[in-house]
Amino acid sequence: MDAFFASVEQKTNPKLRGKPIAVIGSGGRTVITTRSYEARKYGVKTGMNIYEARKACPHIIFVVGNNEKYTHTCKGLQKIYLQFTPDAEVYSIDEAFLDVTTTCHLFGGPEAIGNSIKAEIKNRFGITCTVGIAPNILLAKLASDIAKPDGLKWIKPEEIKSVLEDLPLKELWGIGSGLTGKLEALGIRTCGELGRASVSLLRNKFGIIGEHLNAMGMGLCNRPLYVHEEDPKSIGHSMTFPRDLSGRREIEAEILKLSEMVGRRARKYGFIGRRVSLTVRYPDFETFSRQATLYDYTNHTHEIYTNATSILNSIRLKDSVRLLGVCLSCLIKDCNQMLLFEDRRKEKALLQAMDSVNDKYGDFNLMWASYLKQLTPPRVISPAWRPSGVKNVDVK
DNA sequence: TCTGGGGTCCTAGGACCC
DNA sequence: TCTGGGGTCCTAGGACCC
Description:
This protein is α+β, with helices and mostly antiparallel strands. The protein has 14 helices and 11 strands. Helix 4 (67-82) packs antiparallel against helix 5 (110-125), helix 10 (199-206) packs across helix 11 and helix 12 packs antiparallel against helix 13 (301-313). Mean pLDDT is 90; it is low at 374-378. The protein binds a DNA duplex through helix 3, helix 8, strand 8, strand 10 and strand 11.
């Protein structure tokens, strides 16, 4: 999709059309998640805070995001993709990869499919998208980046070389600012140069990634599509608070809240994990995380909380804290091993009862008493949201 | 005036084991 | 007189993505 959240807002509110707008989260410490093409002209970028954005574009209109609108649209888009191929990977809330190798002859070829999808999305949702067609997803993604907005570009095999020859490295999916800087230090500035670079030099500098980089420079990519949802490797939540936290009790209450969000999601989708991490960010933006590996797998709020706070106790905290994060990793499917222990069976029954009450009456309706006086944090949608499974992070 | 939140993958060093 | 080689697991940090 082109400027997805912003386009949806402009579609539903005609007063916003043709104007520079930016979709933000609620709360003062939010950032720009999407900006309209009108705002991009002024140099407004994703990740800017509202002061920077207003400096770049004084008449910009800020719109607090409406998560339900975007997730609803995303689910509708998925249905459109599936009309053209069963092999569709919904990569993020506004992006998908479609393998039409075996179905494109049914619809008049890949370009015809691209145009049909564009027309149907415009018709049903009133927003535009850009389609990139190529032999692999690295190049398809590049094609769509080149053709944005509201475009369609097909990179055919014989065109790959000329498209890549003078292309700056950072335009490639997978090469960010860090790698760009290191490659430039080696005298490599374009994809063409990367494709001709010495593999042994790259392997020496970058390890396994080195060979991969060389292949990318030649436009090669063999990543398959993940049509079925993969099991997650970690489940985590973090929060920047409306104001910095300073009291120990306040901090622990927020860790309990995050532990409950993590545990609840793990329980909902049947995962248990044996590593708990705590992330801390101070007001000066110094950020670090510490982890602890457990003896047993768990998804119990209280065990996650206990481990996170014992990590907290091992840190000499500075005066105040801007952000806290709790993450459960080393995940496996829960096959009810935990029922072997009588006390854990009771705990599990308690959590199940709490979860079903909260399913019915809303999150945090039934909660530990120590958690009662917490701040209400702003919620910003993550663009990494997916329409199904455990990655369908609660966005209510 | 101040900088979100959800992830994955890779590396390097150290502890420990046989 | 001078200390191998194979492995796993754990932790912290940094790259990348949307």
